[in-house]
Amino acid sequence: MEIAAEHIKRFKLALRAESLRLTSQRLAVMEDILASGGHRECDDIFLSLREKRIPVSRATIYRTLDILEQVGFVRKLDIGDGRFRYENKLAQSHHDHFICLECGRIIEFVDRGIERRQERLSKEHDFRLIRHVHQLFGICRACQMKKAKRGNGSPEA
Fold it and tell me: Smaller CB count within 10 Å for the chain: N or C?
């Protein structure tokens, strides 16, 4: 993936603010996460880079992801299982998440009705909304079906 020069410039400035340099490893982390879709853990990136024979430590990956989050290139998701997921914000428009408490699956969705209601509520309360995180936790259809087959309950609509 070709990263825009403006993104590299913003990344360099953020690194400099942390007294860090733009190394080939940090650039590889940036390229890997920005080239990917989905919701990735540090270990996913670590394994991907290892497959490409790019030596990088998990500490460097975490530090780089934190800086990428600061500059708005990635979003850090906490789904409550103690492991953070990261997603590319540059290639995606705003969306929210359903998160399965059984398997950890993350399903993205967009609902204009929810967005309009948030805007209306913000106006009603004289609140200037900057950003929000909307995560709904439950059980995905696949896990509901597995439970039903095991006799541990029926799938819920």
Answer: C
